[in-house]
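[Automated response] Your request has been received and processed.

Submitted sequence:
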Amino acid sequence: MDKFKIIGKSRIAGEVTISGSKNAALPLLAAMLLPNGETVLHNVPTLKDTETLVKLIGGMGVRIKKEANTVIADARTVTNYYAPYELVRTMRASILVLGPLLARFGEAEVSLPGGCSIGSRPVDQHLKALEAMGADIIVENGYVKAKALKGGKLIGCDFTFDMVTVGGTENTIMAAALASGTTRLENCACEPEVVDLANMLVAMGAKIDGIGTPTMIIEGVDSLHGCEYSVIADRIETGSYLAGALMSCGDVLTKNTTTGFLQPVLKKMQAMGAVITAGDDWIRAVMKSRPKAVDIRTQVHPGFPTDMQAQLMAVCCLAEGVSTITENIFENRFMHVPELQRMGASIKVDGHTAVITGVDSFSPAPVMATDLRASMSLVMAAACADGESMIDRIYHIDRGYENVENKLRGLGVNIERIKA
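Generated structure:
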């Protein structure tokens, strides 16, 4: 496996162009199975996860190709409705092909997904919603086997999610777009990535009310048409690079991004002492002193996003005073704590809460990335440490950060990829 060698004591400063959102691109790629025609999707980041989903969709007979950051797909050529374990096991978002396949073709067989080990993240809400729409679902031998019972067509229904689920909401609204009748969904996720998917479905001809609210009403249509659409900017990538400025008394300007999706993170950064300025398509963070301690509680949108928890924890490790971080979304998302402790961080974990006492600096050490977002927290910590650190299992970071080492070099980080 590849590793990063990072020689620290960098002041993280400069400009960085933000890529399209990974978490938005994946459901948008899955939605390309829905229309009876060609769809063009721009601003798709080049990542392991997007490459895997393109390969998965192509394996179903779809004519699909990726040229630079644009994906062109024509789903009129679908020949099978099967998503094999060999591809699905590497990322959780593969389950998002289930709704589109079932809605358009009346059947699907999709392997149960894999991805980061940050908690159970069950798919039961996906399956309950599809069953409420008339699907017969059997889970056996690690596969979800689903069929629409009434003439191969899903039926609109009223459904309330037991918990807020981003993937469950996305899968269900894709399925409902082609269902017969009207579907009313309660307790929907309101994340920007869900909004982006709903907007693309509308561009394909779907009829959706309540976009961006907990209640969404989808009036099913007979068919959808292709469209041309562009993925929103990656709010988590934006926040990750801005966090580097806070850790190193740096100055980072992120371009091709917006504050609208990142307000809870930016408010915490300001509370830590950062000077935040922004325009229509840029955000800048300038840090002139040691960060101040803060308290953070992860929440569903519009609260503080769990995907920024590890990066802000790394900042808290260098803050003046004692910070607390409470993780309310995933039950196993403090796996980066022992790795930060290896670098000299003072962190105590009690259940879902971490208490961080700030230290003067990180120490260089060999560490191991435990999940996608944790990997970036370790990279930033290593960039601030006084000496050489090695970060193993960086395939995690390749799943979610496009062209990461070149972007970091542009911000002054001394980083080298060591090939396995």
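Summary generated for your ticket: Residues 3-18+234-418 form a domain with the UDP-n-acetylglucosamine1-carboxyvinyl-transferase; Chain fold (CATH 3.65.10.10). The two ends are 5 Å apart (CA to CA).
If you did not submit this request, please reply to this message.
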